[in-house]
Design goal:
By secondary structure, the protein is mainly α. The protein contains 6 helices and 2 strands, in the order H-H-H-E-E-H-H-H. The longest helix has 23 residues, at about 5-25.
């Protein structure tokens, strides 16, 4: 991937970081929380820039990024729809012993994202890692070592060349 393509991707991350700072200057906590979700997802998506010949191919990460995006945006929306700073703890409705906004926070911002990432680590990503891929990586690394001026490992010497 060319440097220009990498720069385009990183400009998106920089713009979100700038928007995050602007929202914090204006003390807009609602905007700040949604921008934070987008920023987190953009940083996760940056893993796609390491693809060989494709610009910003997030296909291996697409499912986890979309799943986390939906979960985090639903969580933020749920929190902002149910939370009111003027309401006392006694006036909130409770779910499993927690005020509704707190329960939404724990469920959508902590528990579900944790389980989604565990699922993707054990399911789709686990299926993509197989012996052919590992052998290909090892062959590429070995070729790079032997063609460089200072190989990381000593080159094999023919037998009897003491």
């Amino acid at each position: 991937m060319s440097q220009t393509e990498n720069n385009k991707i990183m400009v998106v991350v920089a713009l979100l970081a700038t928007a995050f700072l602007v929202a914090s200057v204006f003390q807009s906590t609602v905007a700040l929380s949604y921008i934070a979700v987008l920023f987190i997802l953009s940083v996760l998506s940056v893993a796609g820039i390491e693809s060989n010949d494709r610009e910003f191919d997030i296909s291996p990460y697409g499912g986890v990024i979309v799943s986390l995006g939906i979960i985090l945006l639903l969580g933020m929306t749920g929190i902002w729809l149910t939370w009111d700073p003027g309401v006392s703890a006694a006036e909130y409705t409770y779910i499993i012993g927690l005020p509704t906004p707190t329960a939404i926070y724990l469920f959508f911002i902590w528990f579900l994202p944790f389980f989604v990432t565990i699922y993707y680590a054990l399911s789709p990503f686990n299926e993509t890692v197989n012996d052919d891929i590992i052998d290909s990586i090892l062959d590429d690394a070995q070729e790079a070592q032997t063609t460089s001026e200072f190989p990381m490992a000593a080159a094999e010497q023919p037998a009897g060349d003491d």
